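Re: the 233-residue chain
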Amino acid sequence: MNPGAVSLPTRWALVSALSAALFGLLALLVTARHGTPWALDRSLHLWSVRHRPPVLLAVARAITATGTGPVPYLCAVTAGLVVGVGVGRGVWGRLAPVAGALGFLLLVQGMRYAVLFAVSRPRPPAGGWATHAHGFAFPSGHTSTSATAAGLLAWALWRTATPAAARAGWCVLACWAVAVGLTRGYLGVHWPSDVLGGWLYALTWLAAATAWAARAYRTDRPAPPGPRSSTVP
């Protein structure tokens, strides 16, 4: 190992710090403008309002529905159960990851509401909405919630799956989280900068949690499940 190389926990801590800085800057800019959207926000919003064929609209509504309600919490429970069964020992060893995953999601949600009310950004005009929405706009709740849930499932794969399976799963989860965020703008209930804020917000928390987990387990990645080799190097 190169003694000068940056460790995995440090790299993720830097990602978290950078994401937090960008999110904070975006929140300050939105607040300074009293929620007024930028020209790019307006143009992308108008484009989405004018390009809504029935099939794409139905697909967008179906995808966006997975970013709220019971789905993200079921994802958190599933992630905890997978890790608990895969690496836990005893009842508490198997249930602790479930409690940890749910607690993490609830913490992220609670802090998001604090930011939401602090910024108090209005949503786009209701005439352009193609789904139901309520409350303030920044950061996008569906976007940050789905990204956090996807991150928890990615953590479960990191802890239990083979490298190839984990990479494939991460791609699918990333596509889901991105798709949910894009539908929020496409359905007209968020400005694009709200969606960007949701992704940055979730990345800040997920990178911080990954840095902590990598340091706590003292390894870049646990050995995949399966029979251990008896060969002594």
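The radius of gyration is 20 Å.
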